[in-house]
Amino acid sequence: MNQTNKNNNQWDLLADYFSNPNLCSVDNIEIVEPLLINRLKKSKELNIIDFGCGTGYFCKRLAGFANSILGIDGSKGMIKQAKKYNSIKKIAFSNKSLLSIDISNYNFFNATFVFEFMNDNKIIKILKY
Fold first, then answer.
1. What are phi and psi of 89, to 5 degrees?
2. What CATH number does residue 7 fall under?
3. Which of 5, 7, 42, 60 is surrounded by the fewest CB atoms within 10 Å?
4. Distance (Å, rounded) from C-alpha 100 to C-alpha 83?
């Protein structure tokens, strides 16, 4: 099993845990998300990619002021939970590689607490993309 599949399987095991937003990262919910939301609320015509969306909790919080949101996560378990608990029409979820998605219609890219779990070569590819 390669390293990417091993990491995704570890996240799959945590999908049920992270489907409860009260159990998610306190840093994310109390510090990062409010700052991003306050900033994004001032923007117009937002089409957002939430890379590493997990169970879609942040996507759901963005839905009130974004035109569209694409939540992407490498974990099939996380995407399964995201689809289960989010039925808002303007939010779509995918576990496809970011590099295989046409990003030309998106004007905001969020990757909160994602890059620290990736190797440098993959980060460089994503940033160039």
1. -60, -35
2. 3.40.50.150
3. 42
4. 20
Q: Select from 61, 26, 23 the least CA-distant residue to 41.
A: 61
Query: Can you tell me the distance from the alpha carbon of 67 to that of 85, in angstroms, rounded to the nearest whole number?
Result: 19
Q: How far apart are CA 57 and CA 71, in angstroms?
A: 10
* Segments forming the whole domain that contains residue 67: 3-128
Tell me how crowded residue 55 is: count the other CB atoms within 10 A of its CB.
30
Is pTM beyond 0.90 here?
A: no
Residue keyed to tokens 């970011």: 98
- pLDDT single digits (tens) 61-120: 899 899 999 999 999 999 999 999 899 999 999 999 999 999 999 999 998 878 887 888
